[in-house]
Amino acid sequence: MSKFNQNVDLNLYKTFYAVAQNKSFSKASEDIYISQPAISYNINKLEEQLGVKLFYRTSKGAILTTEGEELFGYIKSAYEYIYLGEQSVKNSKALMTGNIKIGVPTHIGDFYLTQRVKEFHQKYPNILFSIQSRPTADMVYMLETHRLDFIIDSYPINKNNEDLNTKKLMSVKTILVASNKHKEKYNSIIKKSQIKNLPLILPSNNTSTRRAINSYFKKLNVKLNTVMEISTTEMTLDVVKKGIGVGWIIENVLDDELKKELFKLNLEVNLPKIDIEIAYINKFISYAAKKFIEEEIEK
């Protein structure tokens, strides 16, 4: 695609469009609030630039020449696109339409985001939500390349970009869960020295949550026995239900329904809390996304 011609004088085309629409220099003058001599000057200048005659001046008004008719077809289309663009922006600001693109790991989205999206959607049913669950580094890249409006993830979200704004939303407790079929095996308090023997199912190694887990246990001088890495909460729970290992989840996820199949392990040490934060770039975030943050995240 060719580069935009910065030498194009759009005022000349605005004048041309007004004269063609009104079929009159005087009416065009009234329509766009410039003097009739200025209308004539602009049309003459445009004709000189293009090297063609655009109007026949007659007693009945201004009539387009063949070349003028051809040009008018393009200019009319351009004005129609401008109008559609204006309407789209206005509708988006009124939240009649819009798209909110969010990056969030499922283990956070499940308990933190779902209800908030539901409530916002009830108020603004024409807003489309697009939710991505990726490794933290991938989501930050998508944010920087304007493919996400904001990220909700565990602290720390890597902040290599000076334009990236972050804000802590809440702290959540984390727990280890196992299948009820292993209740007898893990029915006593698990000592710090025994943690290394647990067959752990942990978040993927390239996530903020996993980095926080690794850092915490490194300080305790505890080596973890990771048997599986899983990115989604749903799959982690499914694997734990099958008795394959002990899963690391956010405590909020363990509801009454899950307690029928899973139980929380009692540990001698406290597991680390996970700080949940939001990250976005002001110049990229859409109006609809800003409204969602104001009404559902920061309320």
What does this structure look like?
The structure is a single chain. The mean pLDDT is 88. This protein is rod-shaped. By secondary structure, the protein is an alpha/beta fold. Helix content is 41%, strand content 21%. The strands form three sheets. A five-stranded mixed β-sheet has the order 4-3-5-12-6, with helices on both faces. Helix 1 crosses helix 2. The protein contains nine helices and twelve strands. The protein folds into three domains: 84 residues, Winged helix-like DNA-binding domain superfamily/Winged helix DNA-binding domain (Arc Repressor Mutant, subunit A); 94 residues, D-Maltodextrin-Binding Protein, domain 2, CATH 3.40.190; 99 residues, D-Maltodextrin-Binding Protein, domain 2 (3-Layer(aba) Sandwich).
Q: What number of structural domains do the residues give?
A: 3
Biggest β-sheet strands, sense, barrel: 5 strands, mixed
Give the % helix: 40-55%
What's the number of extended β-strand segments? 12
Gap between N and C termini, in Å?
45 Å
- Shape call: rod-shaped
Main CATH class of the largest domain: Alpha Beta
CATH topology of the largest domain: D-Maltodextrin-Binding Protein, domain 2
